[in-house]
Amino acid sequence: MPPPAITFHNLCQFPAPVPDLESALHRWESSMDYDIAIIGAGPAGLSFALSLRDSGLKVAIIEKQPADTLQAPAYDGREIALTHLSQKLMHAHGSWQRLGDGNIHPLMAASVLNGRSDYRLHFDAPANIKGPLGYLVSNQNIRRAIFAEFAASEAATLLDNTNVQHVRTDASGGYITLDNGTTLSASLVIAADTRFSATRNQMGIASDYNDYGRSALLCVMEHEQPHHHTALECFFYGGTLAVLPLDEYRCSVVITVNSAQVSELLQMSEEAFNNEVAQRLGNRLGSMKQCGERYHYPLVGVHARKFYGERFALVGDAAVGMHPVTAHGFNLGLSGQDLLASEIMKACKNQRPFWDTQVLAAYQQQHMPNARVLYHGTNTVVGLFTDDRLPARLLRTAVLRISNHLPPLKQAIRHKLMSEQHPRLRVF
Ligand SMILES: Cc1cc2nc3c(=O)[nH]c(=O)nc-3n(C[C@H](O)[C@H](O)[C@H](O)COP(=O)(O)OP(=O)(O)OC[C@H]3O[C@@H](n4cnc5c(N)ncnc54)[C@H](O)[C@@H]3O)c2cc1C
After folding, report:
1. Looking at residue 211, what DSSP letter applies?
2. How sure is the predictor about 404, in pLDDT bands with cuts at 50, 70 and 90?
3. Distances (CA, A) of 285 to 100, 237, 263, 289, 295
């Protein structure tokens, strides 16, 4: 059988790296079986491979995009708010150090506004802790840095330019059919192939799916007044607007409107768009100027009902794809892959099969309670703050005022952003 079209950017640890392509191809033919096969080299899949790099396991990662695109990903408009735990996990992998200081923007405070009122729910770091609440880094830089670290490591064999067509598992292993007709086998298959995971569907794992009927429009803008590294989440009537602070006079604006209105915003002239944003913001940042393109994403949330099956597990957005308003998606994905990798490493250390159901169940037990709370909590926030009927408007005004005077609630939100530990919620 001819070897699949692969790029040998990374030669896995077993056996030792080979010097030329011919022997590499020979080795490929004689080593069709992997310990772990990861589908999807997005930030979650690559982070998982990096988490396993000292495990001694033979790992493959299959990605439909070419390695060149992974190495130099295009800017996609997303500026990702990262928690301290995410910073710690990326640092432990070595990818944080590859971001470059100029690409990391501190988030010092956050304010939530409702309707046209100037009243705000405000958070900042507690007085006894120096440093930011979190960090803003573009998805482009996150992807670039994680891939650079992956490429420099010997964490896994990358099968790029390769689309997975079919996956099945049974008691003896997992079998992945690639678009070139080859079948690859592995002791454990991991799906990290987006929130629309075809693998999750093929494995018969049901999920709760939420089409919010809205789209997010994203654009980097310059502005007249400084933002003082404070994020704004403005729940206006008829749509929301978030300001994510980058450099002092530059921010990412995220406008969430119903999907029909988004095309109107996309088609506006630059001048009209600048005025529209300044006006929506009540001139809080003075005049606004678009820099770069406008991007848009239809908003869909997904929560898989199980995070594992027989010799199979889900990580990243394939497990939980969040609405971006609470900025948890990738943070949750990073935390989840770390929990799964730790369980696998623990099993290896204890000489137990790492694909065993108990190992995968332990991952779910630790990850799912937190994921559920965040997913459903976010949906509640979205529901309340996008409902413009009078009772909802009154309720959200009350929620902001009560929250501002409830130190334990503010402390809990701060803790979520600033803790370096995985949340430990009770299993139910
Ligand atoms: C507008 C917006 C704003 C966001 N803001 C935040 C934020 O502030 N904070 C935060 O934490 N998160 C945020 N997120 C979420 C974050 O972007 C995602 O959680 C994260 O990118 C998901 O990474 P992933 O690796 O799971 O999936 P992806 O990045 O989707 O990667 C999946 C990979 O799988 C590959 N693939 C798919 N199918 C196949 C196949 N059949 N064969 C081979 N390869 C395949 C794809 O090519 C892709 O490379 C935001 C998301 C959006 C849309």
Report:
1. E
2. low
3. 27, 20, 25, 11, 21
